[in-house]
UniProtKB/TrEMBL annotation:
It comes from Chloroflexus aurantiacus (strain ATCC 29366 / DSM 635 / J-10-fl). InterPro entries: AcTrfase_RimI/Ard1, Acyl_CoA_acyltransferase, GNAT_dom, YpeA/RimI_acetyltransf. CDD domains: NAT_SF. Keywords: Acyltransferase, Cytoplasm, Transferase. This is Ribosomal-protein-alanine acetyltransferase.
Amino acid sequence: MYYFIEPMREEDIPAVQEIERQSQMAPWSALTYRREIRNRQSCRYVVARADTQLPDGTPPATDYPLLLRLLQRIGLVAPASTSTAPIVGYGGIWLNETSGHITTIAVAPAHRRRGVGELILNALIDGAYELNAQYLSLEVRVSNLTAQRLYLKYGFRPVGQRANYYVDNHEDALVMWTDPITTTSYKERLRELRRQLHERLRQQVDQVVVGSPSNGPTVG
């Protein structure tokens, strides 16, 4: 299975809302998504798509140049012709003064634990750089230890909690921030994490291809 990152478009909103429902998240209205997508001065929203075929053609221009260089190595940037591939995840970030605040990341249940969430996070980090953010911040459910481990890996650290933050079950949110993302040390850390992600995704593709019949890769 190949995963691709693209900017979120308004026509993607129904698919994004379906993943939102599958993830039992407090729903956003279509109007909210449209407003966020159109606000290019302070927002970046992306979707992850999945396909069983390696894309042909030249990758298009992208808003995520650092991620583009990572994905080009293994063909994980979708040409325009693959925009009809199913959406399996999405994420968003907006600039709050000096912080690139990650507003949402979600992955469809069938595609979790395959690096898709990490791929989306990397796209959002590139978005933070484009918005000239100095830090990254987010809230995460105190019970979501899987997401917390991912964020810790990318330099986030707990700085507090927000009581009764989530409206569905009144669960507390853990507030997490990074140190400055503009430092050489953070960029070196990010480079190594992206090398590891690239290797993980490449191995997953190799496993599918090796284990597939001659008429093409299997659906993961």
